[in-house]
Write a structure and sequence with these properties.
Helices cover about 30% and strands about 30% of the residues. By secondary structure, it is an alpha+beta fold. Strands 1, 2, 3, 4, 8 and 9 form a six-stranded mixed sheet that branches. A six-stranded antiparallel sheet has the order 18-17-27-26-23-24, with no helix packed on it. A hairpin with a 2-residue loop joins strand 2 and strand 3. The termini are far apart.
Length: about 525
């Protein structure tokens, strides 16, 4: 009898580009054996192995008529530019931030989630047509999505829950069990450990994972566990800073070179968004010369064109040299240096304890980021992979095998040391799995299900990957079913999905074959 094969699609939804990798597993004697390593799986809408995170709407603004590179082609002209939505990921969660940065306020949180949903919708259609060649998915396919680690830990995980719901809603309900999630640093560690890119260092030495994305930087400290290949988590630090900020800074420089008036920029903010794309290509060309070719000085040039109202055309060959790049982005380079120092101080890392610094994420390809880390920690300690922007999506492809074989996560995150808690914040309840583990409940929302990314992972095949949610509000505990396949039961009565139900200490909750009770902390 032929063994079952599973195709796994790994999707990394970046700020400027999305990436799609595919791996194939064979189920053999109850084990998931990888037979095709994760490989980039571009579609016709992709450019250079990636999908630009952009959508283009019709005149009424209600229907997508282009996405990816097709959408970006409409950025030059004034008549179509305002219908393009680009660089929307940084705006996700901005409603929860007290003082958001300007790049986090381009769109509202609701708008950013809508554009994410619609881009995902057209991507799924393309996968069905070009890769799956069927109008329906079945049990032989899986989707794994990555997300920034701070979405799960900041604001009681509300941003991650919104993202997860957005992703699940993009698929038919019957396909919800085909979808799982993993943090971006976990994906990076999986890729580094599976491909042997991590240096052999003492287990006592600390590995610093510096993930510089398009709009955020997360720095994770841990020690490599040689037996499991996982990262024993020590702490994390992050700030809203990424490679995309350099694009907008250079875009202002290009606008000055084109002699576009400040009034025009103020009246039409989409001009800078358009120029930021051209900035990105100049920046990448300059970095390639300085990093890959080993040049000490470099210069990149590009013909930049923008059309304003009344058919005014601005066009000029823009030259970007390392010297004026440093001058234009001086404040951003200083900001990155401060982030690194803040992380070192926050994580309490000494020079003697640090074994290696591993750079991942699209922003890590920027020469000034690499240059500073080499100067700060020593060139021999800084590791930069050939394709750091693809490490996360590559690593996600290995996650299915770990989930299937019930292998612990590549990073086990915990509440960070030094976090000040008031008496009101102290946990008051815990959940007891009959003949199983105890789980302390946060005084907010706690997710349950088969996926390891839940607050309460259930080792129960009858449970959905994201099955239900327990909320602690004041001195009361509620449970809400996520429209799971097999339902959630209180005292053997099935509850209605998407409705919060009050739980008492006498109640018995059943999910699949798992029996759960709520108890008060002593």
């Amino acid at each position: 009898m032929k063994n079952e094969q599973i195709s796994v699609f790994a999707i990394d939804c970046g700020a400027t580009n999305w990436r799609l990798f595919r791996s194939i597993y064979e189920i053999n004697h109850g084990r998931a054996i990888i037979i095709n390593e994760p490989q980039c799986s571009p579609l016709t809408s992709f450019t250079n192995r990636q999908l630009p995170a952009a959508v283009f709407y019709n005149k009424e603004g209600k229907k997508i008529v282009g996405f990816g590179e097709t959408a970006l082609n409409h950025l030059e002209e004034e008549t179509t530019r305002k219908k393009v939505r680009f660089f929307f990921k940084p705006s996700i969660g901005n409603h929860l931030i007290i003082k958001p940065q300007p790049h986090q306020m381009i769109y509202s949180h609701k708008e950013a989630m809508l554009y994410t949903s619609e881009l995902l919708g057209v991507l799924i259609k393309q996968i069905k047509k070009e890769k799956w060649r069927s109008s329906q998915f079945n049990k032989n396919i899986r989707f794994i999505f990555s997300y920034p680690v701070h979405w799960e830990f900041d604001h009681n995980g509300e941003i991650f829950r919104d993202f997860r719901e957005t992703v699940l809603n993009a698929f038919p309900e019957k396909d919800s069990d085909l979808i799982s999630f993993i943090t971006e640093p976990e994906g990076a560690v999986l890729a580094l450990s599976q491909t042997g890119l991590l240096k052999e260092i003492s287990e006592k030495k600390i590995t610093l994972l510096v993930d510089v994305g398009g709009s955020t930087t997360d720095i994770i400290a841990g020690r490599i566990n040689k037996e499991s290949g996982s990262l024993d988590f020590l702490g994390r630090y992050g700030e809203p800073f990424g490679g995309g900020l350099f694009d907008f800074q250079i875009a202002s420089y290009i606008a000055d070179q084109l002699m576009i008036s400040p009034a025009s920029l103020s009246e039409d903010p989409s001009i800078l968004i358009s120029l930021s794309l051209q900035s990105q290509r100049l920046k990448e060309a300059l970095s390639k010369q300085l990093l890959q070719l080993g040049a000490s000085e470099a210069s990149a040039h590009r013909t930049c064109t923008i059309i304003l109202e009344n058919d005014e055309v601005y066009r000029k060959v823009i030259h970007l040299e390392k010297s004026n790049f440093d001058e234009i982005t001086e404040n951003l380079q200083a900001q990155f240096k401060d982030i690194v120092e803040n992380a070192i101080q926050h994580l309490q890392i000494t020079e003697e304890s640090l074994g290696q610094v591993v750079l991942v994420g699209g922003g890590s390809k920027l020469f000034c980021i690499v240059q500073h880390l080499r100067e700060r920690f020593g060139k021999e300690k800084v590791l930069l992979a050939d394709n750091p922007d693809e490490l996360v999506s590559q690593g996600i492809g290995y996650q299915f095998g770990r989930e299937f074989d019930d292998i612990p996560p590549s990073i086990v995150f915990s509440i960070e040391d030094g976090e000040i808690k008031t008496e009101e914040d102290e946990p008051r309840f815990y959940l007891q799995v009959k003949e199983g583990k105890k789980y302390t409940l946060r005084n907010s929302k706690n997710t349950m299900g088969r996926s390891l990314s839940n607050d309460i992972p259930l080792n129960d095949q009858k449970s959905s990957r994201f099955h239900a949610e327990i909320s602690v509000i004041g001195d009361e505990v509620f449970i809400l079913d996520f429209e799971s396949t097999n339902g959630t039961f209180i005292n053997e009565t099935r509850i209605k999905p998407k409705e919060a139900n009050l739980i008492s200490f006498k109640d018995e909750i059943r999910i699949g074959d798992s029996i759960l009770t709520i108890n008060r902390m002593k």
